[in-house]
Amino acid sequence: MNYEILYIIPTEYSETEIKEKDEKVLSILKECGASIIRIDNWGKKKLAYQIKNYRYGYYTLIIFYVEANAIKKITQKLNINQDVIRFQIVKEIKQIKKTKSKNEKTKKTEEKSEKKEIKIKDKDRLKKNKEGKEEKLKKTEKNFSIDELDEKLSKLLKDTI
């Protein structure tokens, strides 16, 4: 089964010493029967909180394949190792689901609301007669010119004043 290990080495070591510490961790993994798939050195990063009086550490991520019963041996050996101040081993997630962005979510909700509005408008156009049958109401659209609209608007405004 594929696993990921992320471990932190303190910044008190030089870069050549850090490579030696990485090799030591790799040898621990290989002793337990792991086959290395990928190694990512993330470099020096600030820790979220102080660990053993260290504020910074060198992060390394290793993806490896090993049997499930070997994980316990690996954790025991890394707990004894003084060079690693913190580590975490997890199963590798094979397929990451695509997360939808906020824009995609809002577009879908807008489309749904538009569909609902269209359905409501269609229902408003239908009129039930006495027998319960639905009849479509006729649309009455009148095309007015701008001059006619201005006249009607001025009449309405005069009436309200």
Describe the structure.
41% of the residues lie in helices and 31% in strands. It has 161 residues and is an alpha+beta fold. It has a domain at 2-91: Ribosomal protein S6/Translation elongation factor EF1B (Alpha-Beta Plaits, 2-Layer Sandwich), CATH 3.30.70.60. Strands 2-3-1-4 form a four-stranded antiparallel β-sheet, with helices on one face. Strands 5-6 form a two-stranded antiparallel ribbon.
Q: Short description, anyone?
A:
This protein has 161 residues and is α+β, with helices and mostly antiparallel strands.
Give the arrangement of secondary structure elements.
Elements: E1 2-10, H1 15-31, E2 35-51, E3 54-65, H2 71-80, E4 86-91, H3 102-125, E5 126-128, E6 134-136, H4 146-160
Antiparallel strand pairs: 1-3, 1-4, 2-3, 5-6
Could you report the average pLDDT, rounded to the nearest whole number?
80
- Structural class assignment: alpha+beta
Biggest β-sheet: strands ordered side by side in the sheet: 2-3-1-4
Secondary structure: number of strands: 6
The major β-sheet equals: 4 strands, antiparallel
Shape field:
elongated
Give keywords:
161 residues; alpha+beta; Alpha-Beta Plaits; 4-stranded antiparallel sheet; two-stranded antiparallel ribbon; 41% helix
